[in-house]
Design goal:
It contains 11 helices and 5 strands, in the order αββααβββαααααααα. It is globular.
Length: 255
């Protein structure tokens, strides 16, 4: 039997009501995401995601050295804001910062925070930098890292960070997940979608999407010169670089 007594039924109903209220109050939402072109159920609404991003950004400032060169910061932020105006997510205030690191890499955390390594900023021309930033904005628009954090950390730990009830460990755990994504790459599907969105955003912002392709080649050359067997995220073994370049070029032919 599914129901043994009215008392048990009332208890079950109470649990369901409490669970529904908890999810509603904590921001569980179902939304249509134009970046993925799908309806998605999320633990966090935008306000909760921004709160999480602020916590992660504060932790990053404790662990990393941030660049202070005014000209470099102005260039990154000007290009970033120009591209961000065409993101599929306009419910965020995007923040662009430069990390003192000679490697050609970049990463993002939930809430609209994008970090460019100083080595990349120095090496990339404007179209290439716009392509990298657009790729990271694509991950944010598609909520890739949010979904990864939801799956790996769970609802309670994530909401504990947002509400300030979790202590230091969950924040460090969340940051570890973000670093893993930055260093090891997202899934094949996520990376290809971010590349596709990068073409869309750079083109709308008035930059040539060809910069995405030329930067791929710069990364290949840099990896070959340094003899790296494990190139940075943009050259992740899944998907292969040739496949990513082919997709970008196919997207460029669309109007």
């Amino acid at each position: 039997m599914l129901y043994r007594s009215n008392r048990n039924n009332a208890g079950l109903l109470g649990v369901l009501i409490a669970l529904t209220a908890c999810l509603t109050l904590c921001g569980c939402v179902t939304v249509y995401n134009p970046a993925t072109e799908r309806r998605e159920t999320l633990f966090m609404d935008t306000a909760a995601e921004v709160a999480l991003g602020k916590e992660l950004d504060a932790e990053l400032h404790k662990k990393m050295k941030f660049a202070t060169d005014p000209a470099q910061l102005a260039r990154v932020r000007n290009i970033g804001q120009r591209v961000a105006r065409y993101s599929d997510r306009q419910d965020l205030h995007y923040v662009f910062q430069v990390v003192e690191d000679k490697t050609l890499n970049a990463f993002a955390v939930p809430g609209g925070y994008v970090y460019i390594h100083s080595g990349l900023a120095q090496t990339a021309n404007d179209a290439e930098l716009a392509g990298v930033i657009a790729h990271e904005i694509g991950h944010i628009a598609a909520r890739h890292s949010v979904k990864q954090l939801q799956g790996l950390m769970g609802f309670q730990l994530l909401m504990g960070i947002v509400t300030g009830a979790s202590g230091q460990l969950p924040v460090s755990q969340a940051l570890s997940v973000v670093f893993d994504l930055a260093n090891l790459g997202y899934s094949r599907k996520d990376e290809l979608l971010a590349d596709k969105l990068a073409v869309r955003y750079t083109r709308r912002a008035g930059y040539s999407p060809l910069g995405i392709v030329t930067f791929f080649h710069k990364l290949e050359t840099d990896a070959a010169q340094k003899g790296r067997s494990a190139p940075p995220v943009f050259l992740s073994s899944h998907p292969p670089t040739k496949q990513r370049i082919a997709q970008v070029e196919e997207e460029m032919r669309k109007r």
